[in-house]
C-alpha cells in the first residue's frame, strides 16, 4: 500500500483529532454520555452543569444517594443540605473519572468567593470525600473563583496541602498574573464571556477569531506565562464558536462543550498550532509583580473583568441556591416521619393510580368511521417509561420519539410526556398501562353523518396541560382549552364511575366545574397533596337559545385526565399571565411554515425555575429562566398528526405556577397543484408556470409573493414567476433531514375592499436536492447512489465473538453508549402463525456478532441502521426487534465501537433475545448510507446516539437496502466458511466471497447486496434482497 501524504492524512482527520495533537481537550459537561462520546483527557463541572444534570432522570440515583448521605450525617437542615451538596458534587466527579483518564474539576461554592479560610476548609472536605472513595487528590482539581481571596486560598492549598487548583471566572490580566505568582496549577480564562461583554458594550457586533477579545486575552496570558517560565498552565474556557477554539490551538488545555465538540468532530478543515512557546518567547511583554493593593487597582481598571467576575459569581451562586432548594424539598420528605409517610402515599398514588392524559380522535372514512385513529398524549412520573405496554411489536401503532421530550421537575417527583397513535374501535373502553402507571380510556365516537355536510362527525379536541399546581387556601381557576372542527358546542363534565368511564374517581368538593365553559375552579379548601380528576369532553349540535330541544344528545365524547398538586400556602397573590406573541389562540399553519411563539413573564416574580410545556412532537423550546423568557418553535413538515395541535404552557417557580395558557395550531388541508402547473427548482431559484384556466375567478393583479417587489407576469393563458431562493421573501426551514425553501403566492387586497370573489393561497416549496415536478404527477430527478457514493457493496455477516474481519475490535470490545433503547418484547412461543420448530436445545451459543458492512470508501459517509429483526423462520412471519427506528433493544443488543463509519457491528446476547425454542435464527436489517452536505454536518441517528437533535440539517441518503442473513446455527460446532449467494434489483447473480474478490457495478440500480453468514451453520444457502425507497423531494400543494 502506498503511503498517505501528510496533507492528505490531515484532510482525512477531524478538526477535533488535529486539535488533540496540540492541546489537551477537556469536556465542559456533567453529562457522562457526552464524555463517553468525545473521549476527552479531562472534564470540568460547575454548579450550573450539576444542576442541569441533577434534573435528568438518568442521574436521579446520584441525587438520591447524596440525600441519604446528607441525612445520615445528621445536624441542622442547613448542615444536611451542605453535606448533600458536597456528596453530590463528588459523586458526579467520581462517575466522570470512570470516563476520563485524567482529572476532574470540582468547584467550591461561589458564595464563598470572598472568604479565603472557608474556601480552604471546603476544598479539603471535597478532597477527603474523593479519597474516601479511593481517588487520589492528584486526579482532582479544586475550582476556585479568581478573586484575591480565592487566589490566596489556591496558594495555601497548593503549598500546604498539595491540592491542585483550577482558578475559574478569570477575565483580567491582573487575575492571571496573581494566579501565576500564587503558583496554582491551572487557570480557566473565559473566552466567550469576554466576547459577550464586548458585543453588548461596544459598537462591534461581530469579530473574526484572530481579533476576538477573548482569544486575544488568552493569547496574551499564555505568552506571558511561557515567556517568563511560570508553571501554571492555561485552559481556555467558555467558548461561543469553533473559530475561537481553533484560534487557540496550541494552548495548554481547552475545555469545550459537547455541542462544539460535535462540530469539531465533523469538521475536516486543517488546523495548525496558533500558540507556541517559541512565539511566546519572542513577544514584547514585560514581567510585573502584584501585591494585594496593585491587584485590586489593576483589576478594578478593567471594567469588563469587574462586571463579568461579579456576574459569574452571582449566576453560579443562583444555580447553587436552586440546587439547594431542590435538595431541601427532597430531604423534607425523606427525613420527617409524617411528611415521609404523606409523601410516600402521594407518590404511590401518582405511580399506581394515574397518568395524565388526553386523546385526540380522528374517524377513519375508509370503513365508515367504525374505527378511529387515536392520538394519545400521556403524562407519567419521571423517568420516561417505554412504550412496550401500549405499542407492542406488530401492532398498528406509531410512537413519537424525540430527543427533547416534554419533561418537568415540578411538582415532585417530576413528569414526562409520552405520545403515540394507534387505530382502535370507535366505541372503545380500556384500562391501559404505561410503565408503572395506569389510566382509563373511554371513547364514544361511533359514526354519525352530519346532515349539513354529509361527512362524518369529528369528535372534540381537548388540550393536555402540564401538571397543574395550586396553593392551599388560595382559590384558582383553570380554563381547559377545547376546539371542535365542525364548530359544535363543546361541554365538559366529570366522568361517571357508574358508566364505566373511570375507576376510583371521586368528585372532590373543592373542585367545581363550569360544564358549558369547561372551566375548573379550585376553592382552596383542600389540604396539601396530589389529586386526580377524570373528565369527559363532548360535542353537541349548536342550537340557538330561542329554540328548545327536549333531548340534545352528545354526538361523541373523549376523555381527559388531570392532576392537581396542592402545595402549602406561601403567598396567594394574583394569577400571573404570560405575554405571548403572536396573541392569537389559533394559528393557521401552511406546509413547511415555521411557527414561533415568544413567551415572557414579569421579572418582578423572581427567576422562573422551569417552563412546563406540552405540545406536538418536534416542538422546540429555547428558554432563558434568568430573563423569564422562552421561544417555542414548530415546523410543519410532512406528518400524520391531527389537523388541530395544541401547545399548552405555564411558568413554574418553587412556590407557584402561572396561569395555564394554550395556543392551537391548525394544519390547513393540502391539495395537489392544478393539472398543467409546472414548478421547477434549481440551485438559485424556483420557476412557477400556472395555467390561468386552473384558477378561475382569481384576479391576477391581486396576486403577490411573500415580497411584493418580486415580479409576477402573465399573458392570456399562463402566469409565470421566477422566485429567487435568496430573495422574494423566500424562507428557509429545516424539515427533518431536508432543507426546504418556501414562498407563497396569495391574493392580497386592500383592507377597505370587501369582495365575494374567491382568494388564492398557494404555498410553494423546493427541497434539497434539486428536483422537478409537473402537474398532479411527480417527476423525480435526483442523483443516483453511484453518483453520490460511488461503486459500493453492502452485506451482512454473522460471527462468533472475536472472529471475522473486524476481530481486532470485537476481541476486547468497547461498547457504544445506548442513549435510548427499545422496550424488550417477547414473542408468544405458542403462536401458530409460522411452522413449528425444534424445541429441544442442549447447548447453544451465548453471543454472536452481527456485522453490517459496506465497502464505500468516501471519507464522510456513514452507515445508518434503521431496523433489524430476528426470527426463527426464514419467512419472518413472526419476528422480534433487535433495533427499530435506530433504537437498540437494550436487553439483548450492544453496539461495538469500530474505526469505520461505513459499517456497524453489534453484539447480540442470545440469552436475552426472544429466540428461545429453536437452534437456528435468521436476521433481517434495513440500512442506508448517509453523507452530510455541509463540512460540519453530521448524520442523525433516529434514537439520538450520534449527536444533537440539530446534527443534520441537510444530508444525502442512499436508497434503503434490506439485508437478510441465511440460516444461523445457534449450536456450537466446527467452523464452516459458507458459500455466498446474492441478488440485485436487476437480476440474481452468484458472487464470490467478498473478502476475496470485491464486486462493484456501474449501474446504481444493480448494486449488489451481499449476504454472508460466518456463524457455525449446517446449511449456508443465503439470500439477499435490495428494497429501493425513493423520497419525493418536492411537495406540491394548493389551498383555497
From TrEMBL:
GO cellular component, one term: cytoplasm
SMART domains on file: ZP (SM00241)
UniProt-listed Pfam families: TAL_FSA (PF00923), ZP-N (PF23344)
Domain ZP span(s) in chain numbering: 680-946
Keywords annotated in UniProt: Cytoplasm, Pentose shunt, Schiff base, Transferase
BP-aspect Gene Ontology terms: carbohydrate metabolic process; pentose-phosphate shunt, non-oxidative branch
Subcellular localization(s) per the UniProt record: Cytoplasm
Family: Belongs to the transaldolase family. Type 1 subfamily.
Name assigned to this protein: Transaldolase
Species in which this protein is naturally found: Oryzias javanicus (Javanese ricefish)
Amino acid at each position: 500500500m502506498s503511503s498517505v501524504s501528510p496533507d492528505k492524512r490531515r484532510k482525512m482527520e477531524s478538526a477535533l483529532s488535529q486539535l488533540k495533537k496540540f492541546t489537551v481537550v477537556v469536556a465542559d459537561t456533567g453529562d457522562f454520555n457526552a464524555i463517553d462520546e468525545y473521549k476527552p483527557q479531562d472534564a470540568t463541572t460547575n454548579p450550573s452543569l450539576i444542576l442541569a444534570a441533577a434534573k435528568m432522570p438518568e442521574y436521579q440515583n446520584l441525587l438520591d444517594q447524596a440525600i441519604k448521605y446528607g441525612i445520615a450525617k445528621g445536624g441542622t437542615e442547613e448542615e444536611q443540605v451542605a453535606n448533600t451538596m458536597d456528596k453530590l458534587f463528588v459523586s458526579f466527579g467520581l462517575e466522570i473519572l470512570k470516563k476520563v483518564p485524567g482529572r476532574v474539576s470540582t468547584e467550591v461554592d461561589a458564595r464563598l468567593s470572598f472568604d479565603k479560610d472557608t474556601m480552604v476548609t471546603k476544598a479539603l472536605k471535597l478532597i477527603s470525600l474523593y479519597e474516601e472513595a479511593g481517588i487520589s487528590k492528584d486526579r482532582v482539581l479544586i475550582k476556585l473563583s479568581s478573586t484575591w481571596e480565592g487566589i490566596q486560598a489556591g496558594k495555601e492549598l497548593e503549598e500546604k496541602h498539595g491540592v491542585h487548583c483550577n482558578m475559574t471566572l478569570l477575565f483580567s490580566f491582573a487575575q492571571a498574573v496573581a494566579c501565576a505568582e500564587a503558583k496554582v496549577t491551572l487557570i480557566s480564562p473565559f473566552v466567550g464571556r469576554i466576547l459577550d461583554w464586548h458585543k453588548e458594550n461596544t459598537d462591534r457586533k461581530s469579530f473574526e477569531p484572530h481579533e476576538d477579545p477573548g482569544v486575544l486575552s488568552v493569547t496574551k496570558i499564555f505568552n506571558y506565562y511561557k515567556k517568563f517560565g511560570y508553571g501554571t498552565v492555561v485552559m481556555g474556557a467558555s467558548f461561543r464558536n469553533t473559530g475561537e477554539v481553533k484560534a487557540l490551538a496550541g494552548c495548554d488545555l481547552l475545555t469545550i462543550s459537547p455541542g462544539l465538540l460535535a462540530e469539531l468532530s465533523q469538521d475536516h478543515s486543517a488546523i495548525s498550532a496558533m500558540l507556541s512557546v517559541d512565539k511566546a518567547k519572542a513577544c514584547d511583554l514585560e514581567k510585573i509583580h502584584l501585591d494585594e493593593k496593585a491587584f485590586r487597582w489593576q483589576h478594578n481598571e478593567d471594567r469588563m473583568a469587574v462586571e463579568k467576575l461579579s456576574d459569574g459569581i452571582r449566576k453560579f451562586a443562583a444555580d447553587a441556591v436552586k440546587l439547594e432548594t431542590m435538595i431541601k424539598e427532597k430531604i423534607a420528605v425523606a427525613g420527617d416521619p409524617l411528611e415521609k409517610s404523606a409523601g410516600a402515599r402521594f407518590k404511590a398514588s401518582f405511580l399506581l393510580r394515574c397518568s395524565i392524559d388526553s386523546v385526540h380522535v380522528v374517524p377513519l372514512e375508509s370503513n365508515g368511521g367504525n374505527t378511529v385513529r387515536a392520538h394519545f398524549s400521556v403524562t407519567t412520573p419521571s423517568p420516561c417509561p417505554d412504550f412496550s405496554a401500549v405499542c407492542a411489536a406488530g401492532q398498528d401503532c406509531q410512537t413519537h420519539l424525540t430527543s427533547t421530550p416534554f419533561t418537568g421537575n415540578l411538582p415532585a417527583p417530576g413528569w414526562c410526556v409520552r405520545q403515540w397513535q394507534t387505530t382502535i374501535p370507535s366505541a372503545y373502553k380500556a384500562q391501559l398501562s404505561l410503565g408503572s402507571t395506569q389510566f382509563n380510556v373511554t371513547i364514544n365516537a361511533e359514526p354519525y353523518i352530519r346532515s349539513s355536510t354529509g361527512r362524518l362527525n369529528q369528535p372534540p379536541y381537548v388540550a393536555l396541560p402540564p401538571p397543574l399546581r395550586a396553593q392551599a387556601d388560595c382559590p384558582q381557576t383553570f380554563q381547559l382549552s377545547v376546539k371542535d372542527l365542525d364548530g359544535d358546542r363543546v361541554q365538559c363534565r366529570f366522568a361517571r364511575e357508574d358508566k364505566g368511564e373511570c375507576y376510583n374517581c371521586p368528585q372532590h368538593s373543592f373542585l367545581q366545574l363550569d360544564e358549558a365553559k369547561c372551566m375548573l375552579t379550585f376553592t382552596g379548601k383542600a389540604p396539601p397533596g396530589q389529586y386526580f380528576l377524570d373528565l369527559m369532553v363532548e360535542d353537541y349540535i349548536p342550537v340557538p337559545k330561542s329554540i328548545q330541544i327536549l333531548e340534545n344528545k352528545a354526538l361523541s365524547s373523549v376523555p381527559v385526565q388531570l392532576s392537581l398538586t396542592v402545595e402549602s400556602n406561601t403567598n396567594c397573590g394574583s394569577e400571573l399571565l404570560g405575554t405571548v406573541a403572536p396573541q392569537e389562540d389559533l394559528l393557521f399553519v401552511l406546509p413547511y411554515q415555521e411557527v414561533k411563539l415568544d413567551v415572557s413573564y414579569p421579572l418582578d416574580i423572581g427567576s422562573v425555575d422551569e417552563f412546563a410545556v406540552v405540545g406536538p412532537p418536534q416542538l422546540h423550546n429555547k428558554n432563558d429562566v434568568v430573563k423569564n423568557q422562552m421561544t417555542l418553535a414548530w415546523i410543519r413538515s410532512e406528518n400524520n398528526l391531527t389537523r388541530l395541535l395544541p401547545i399548552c404552557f405555564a411558568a413554574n417557580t418553587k412556590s407557584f405556577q402561572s396561569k395555564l395558557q394554550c395556543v392551537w395550531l391548525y394544519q390547513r388541508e393540502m391539495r395537489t397543484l392544478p393539472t398543467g402547473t409546472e414548478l421547477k427548482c434549481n440551485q438559485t431559484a424556483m420557476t412557477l408556470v400556472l395555467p390561468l384556466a386552473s384558477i378561475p375567478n382569481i384576479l391576477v393583479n391581486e396576486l403577490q409573493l411573500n415580497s411584493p417587489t418580486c415580479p409576477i407576469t402573465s399573458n392570456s393563458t399562463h402566469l409565470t414567476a421566477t422566485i429567487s431562493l435568496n430573495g422574494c421573501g423566500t424562507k428557509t426551514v429545516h424539515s427533518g433531514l431536508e432543507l426546504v425553501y418556501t414562498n407563497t403566492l396569495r391574493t392580497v387586497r386592500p383592507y377597505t375592499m370587501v369582495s365575494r370573489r374567491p382568494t388564492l393561497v398557494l404555498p410553494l416549496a423546493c427541497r434539497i436536492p434539486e428536483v422537478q415536478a409537473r402537474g398532479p404527477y411527480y417527476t423525480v430527478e435526483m442523483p443516483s447512489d453511484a453518483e453520490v457514493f460511488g461503486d459500493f457493496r453492502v452485506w451482512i455477516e454473522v460471527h462468533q465473538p472475536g472472529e471475522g474481519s473486524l476481530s481486532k475490535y470485537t476481541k476486547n470490545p468497547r461498547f457504544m453508549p445506548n442513549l435510548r433503547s427499545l422496550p424488550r418484547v417477547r414473542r408468544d412461543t405458542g403462536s401458530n402463525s409460522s411452522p413449528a420448530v425444534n424445541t429441544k436445545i442442549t447447548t447453544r451459543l451465548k453471543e454472536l456478532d452481527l456485522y453490517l458492512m459496506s465497502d464505500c470508501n468516501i471519507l464522510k459517509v456513514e452507515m445508518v441502521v434503521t431496523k433489524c429483526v430476528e426470527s426463527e423462520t426464514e419467512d419472518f412471519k413472526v419476528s422480534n426487534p433487535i433495533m427499530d427506528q435506530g433504537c437498540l433493544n437494550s436487553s439483548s443488543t450492544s453496539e461495538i465501537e469500530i474505526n469505520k463509519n461505513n459499517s456497524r457491528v453489534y453484539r447480540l446476547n442470545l440469552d436475552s433475545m426472544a429466540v428461545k425454542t429453536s437452534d437456528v435464527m435468521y436476521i433481517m436489517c434495513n440500512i442506508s448510507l448517509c453523507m452530510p452536505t455541509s463540512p460540519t454536518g453530521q448524520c442523525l441517528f433516529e434514537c439520538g446516539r450520534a449527536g444533537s437533535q440539530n446534527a443534520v440539517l441537510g444530508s444525502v441518503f442512499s436508497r434503503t437496502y434490506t439485508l437478510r442473513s441465511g440460516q444461523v446455527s445457534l449450536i456450537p460446532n466446527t467452523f464452516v466458511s459458507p458459500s455466498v449467494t446474492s441478488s440485485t434489483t436487476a437480476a440474481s447473480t452468484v458472487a464470490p466471497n467478498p473478502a476475496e474478490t470485491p464486486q462493484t457495478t456501474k449501474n446504481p440500480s444493480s448494486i449488489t447486496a451481499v449476504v454472508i453468514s460466518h456463524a457455525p451453520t449446517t446449511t449456508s444457502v443465503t439470500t439477499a434482497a435490495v428494497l429501493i425507497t425513493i423520497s419525493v423531494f418536492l411537495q406540491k400543494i394548493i389551498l383555497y
